[in-house]
Amino acid sequence: MKILKQGDIICLVSEEGKKWFVKLESKNFSTHKGIVNLGEIIGKRPGGFILTNTNNRLSYFLPSLEEIILHYIKRSTQIIYPKDAGYLMLKLGITQGMRVLEVGTGSGAMTLLLAYYVGDNGRVFTIEERKEFSKKAENLIKDFGLENRVCFIVKSIQDGINEKDFDAAILDLKEPEKYLETVVNCLSSGASFGVVVPTTNQVSAVLSVCENLPVFNLEVCEILFRKYKINPDRLRPNDVMVGHTAYIITGRKIERGM
Amino acid sequence: MKILKQGDIICLVSEEGKKWFVKLESKNFSTHKGIVNLGEIIGKRPGGFILTNTNNRLSYFLPSLEEIILHYIKRSTQIIYPKDAGYLMLKLGITQGMRVLEVGTGSGAMTLLLAYYVGDNGRVFTIEERKEFSKKAENLIKDFGLENRVCFIVKSIQDGINEKDFDAAILDLKEPEKYLETVVNCLSSGASFGVVVPTTNQVSAVLSVCENLPVFNLEVCEILFRKYKINPDRLRPNDVMVGHTAYIITGRKIERGM
Amino acid sequence: MKILKQGDIICLVSEEGKKWFVKLESKNFSTHKGIVNLGEIIGKRPGGFILTNTNNRLSYFLPSLEEIILHYIKRSTQIIYPKDAGYLMLKLGITQGMRVLEVGTGSGAMTLLLAYYVGDNGRVFTIEERKEFSKKAENLIKDFGLENRVCFIVKSIQDGINEKDFDAAILDLKEPEKYLETVVNCLSSGASFGVVVPTTNQVSAVLSVCENLPVFNLEVCEILFRKYKINPDRLRPNDVMVGHTAYIITGRKIERGM
Amino acid sequence: MKILKQGDIICLVSEEGKKWFVKLESKNFSTHKGIVNLGEIIGKRPGGFILTNTNNRLSYFLPSLEEIILHYIKRSTQIIYPKDAGYLMLKLGITQGMRVLEVGTGSGAMTLLLAYYVGDNGRVFTIEERKEFSKKAENLIKDFGLENRVCFIVKSIQDGINEKDFDAAILDLKEPEKYLETVVNCLSSGASFGVVVPTTNQVSAVLSVCENLPVFNLEVCEILFRKYKINPDRLRPNDVMVGHTAYIITGRKIERGM
């Protein structure tokens, strides 16, 4: 049974469903439904509610990974969507104890997921050449107390990768076709990699370089996600949906000679 | 760096991409590409290859969660698809240390995922009234050495649930609308639940009962997954795709009074 | 070779792609790109351009059926989308000379299509109980000079249908399950019908009544339409797409006794 | 009220829904449900039934355009699907009296639709370099008595097009990017064209050449079609669906200078 403690990232939600994501500290927090003293929530169990100074109820709980990605992480860059990220976790077989390489830290959304899933004995190495992105992602990981699981590396992938024998790798950067060979060279035999790209031209470029790399088991996919209106008597999809996020290319390293 | 050991579930793959999933033991294994002595693989690193008695090369590696679900688990019942399972993990926020309830063990595919993701300190309670399904799933979990994380309960959900304060719950059984209240009662405040159903009528039925339960943040979605042909010069989706697996309904428990 | 004449519905388009749909008359027409004298276009061939008083070029052409439906028809009610309407035309086999029944004139979008496709020797009977909708649709049909092909009937479908032996029928109204029998009774043997509904509950309701009607060859479908960005070097779908318009139920009347 | 006459293409359907498409003549026709004398149907109204020599009932009716395309036309080549063809008809604004160019007769499926929709006063010019395909398509058009509306041209599009001032054009051949300029030159100002291609590489190639052609209003789309099971109490999509048929590129010719 979880107890909310100082520093936790929590979600406040109004009765109309409006959400706010905030770090739990002893301070006032203002919403259009009034002001609450966050300190009152410390020590409480999630799922309760608090009254604002204008007598509105806000419920509070611990956000899921999906909510953190979609709503909490600052959209400084393209984030990866839960539908894609969840699939990648299974497809790459991310489990506890793994050493995972991420090329392109970006917003840190994927870094956070990887940090959760590799566990205390696993490790994520994430490379990003833009210092400010790396720093922001590092702060994000600290918000969730997972900094011991992640190694932030600020450099260009062009300068190579020092570590070896990764159990899995994810590439989420421009022109991944230029760096896939470098990444594959750092993988253990049999390890899986995933490449996330928005355009069909990039898919073609990545598949082309794969023809000369020791990889197999290639898959290219896209995932469409459609929400429905919450109405049992008039059930129907929402009028609008996300039309595209990314194509996902995955494969496995094989020993040369196969 | 992983070393393959006796009892590991491995995947053999031919040069044409045909896959076999098998438990690693000192015994012969027959394929249409010839016979291999599995014992030779024990102690090797994944990603290598072995020669059959007819001189064909088979590569071997450790299967991902996606491959285990789609290819290894016996299809004694409807399995949950990786696209759906991966999303549910994020949406329900399954992380290490959680106590998770599963109603409807079925093939054990979701049980296995949950066992992986809750880690050594977490626990999965999975209820199934058909003894043979429960037994099969238990053997599956043992194949992956995760039996300490899972509690198999053979009974009808109609007889109630003894445990309390689950951090998340998944319902994957017929007529989930009849048992959702029982499940919600066993959740911690703020905990998430997910219901997996194949038909729109079931979606409506579940949404209807939700109107009288202490739940909020309801979402209904479906996920479409489309593969592309691996051809950089003629990139196009496969001619055929899976048209439907399940609708996913998720929500959160809230304290009564909100 | 078409020549634009007074009364034609034309489309003006700016160099940025902004479109205006307007009836061709000798009068000024104002846009944010300046004013044009529409009279100057009369007698010209479509595909040319005209200068505004602020020296901006507007191209003019005759809109397609798709543009008329999506952009010209006033959205007084839900319109049918081109992706759905085009399929229905083929599925119901609408060809010249047919007598077609439409129940639910609505905006007149489908009425207009049917009027085009049945030709000079065909006839569309369209029933609508809301007088103002029927009148608006009638004006729409007159805009395109097809009024001789359409018979507008202002009454409730509850009061029955006098005509018989229709070659096809389309139902686009609330609670079509209540009136499908009436419609089927007015069809020729072997004639097709189509029902357009937004919700899954309505699909179930329509399929239920079909069980006791002399119909066969039932099909339920939905059509998803996704646009791509016009960029050859970065080809990818639009970020947002329409998630849902309607479910389409079609079938054929059969003689009782089959 | 239609009466079936010699030479009509009809559809026979068994009580289980199995369909046969056949030309109506005074001869026996064999099915696994027994033999019928087709001559008995001549003069009857569609929608009735006939008994086989083994006393099974077969219903007969006139197939829709959708059934003709999907089931009657010999699959000597890739056909265009109803979902795509119906949309193209509206998007290109095909109406009676139009002169339409088709480059790539192929199976004749699109030729047939165009012939139906342009009416007695319209005309379809269809170019195909493979003589046997052109001949087969010509026979198809004759089966439906529309040969006066279609001009079959056996030659390579590389040899140019003699006719001018088409109201619309459809390209359905390999490497359409090589011939789009030729086609656009034959269009009236303001006329629309559509290109049907299976791969993303072709979409990019076509969009690239468009950058130097007098065209505007470009659209690239794909259409997904999903059927549902006919079960009101357990409504759900079919397990399998078509994953891809074609990308559709459309645009309009504009006078040079715009």
Question: Could you characterize what this model shows?
Answer:
4 copies of one chain form a homotetramer. Helices cover 22% and strands 33% of the residues of chain A. By secondary structure, chain A is of the alpha/beta class. Chain A folds into 2 domains: 9-61, Vcp-like ATPase, Chain A, domain 2, CATH 3.10.330; 66-253, Rossmann fold. Chain A is globular. Chains in contact: A-B, A-C, A-D, B-C, B-D, C-D. At the B-C interface, helix 6 of B face helix 6 of C. Strand 13 (240-242) of chain A pairs antiparallel with strand 13 (240-242) of chain C, so a sheet runs across the interface.
Short description:
4 copies of one chain form a homotetramer. Chain A is an alpha/beta fold and 258 residues long.
Feature tags:
14 strands; about 20% helix; Vcp-like ATPase, Chain A, domain 2; about 260 residues; 4-stranded antiparallel β-sheet; globular; 6 helices; alpha/beta; homotetramer; 2 domains; Rossmann fold
Map the helices and strands.
The structure is a homotetramer of 258-residue chains.
Chain A: E1 9-14, E2 19-23, E3 28-31, E4 34-37, E5 49-51, E6 57-61, H1 65-72, H2 82-91, E7 99-103, H3 109-118, E8 123-128, H4 131-143, E9 150-154, E10 166-171, H5 180-185, E11 187-197, H6 200-210, E12 215-228, E13 240-242, E14 247-253
Parallel strand pairs in A: 7-8, 7-10, 8-9, 10-11
Antiparallel strand pairs in A: 1-2, 1-6, 3-4, 5-6, 11-14, 12-14
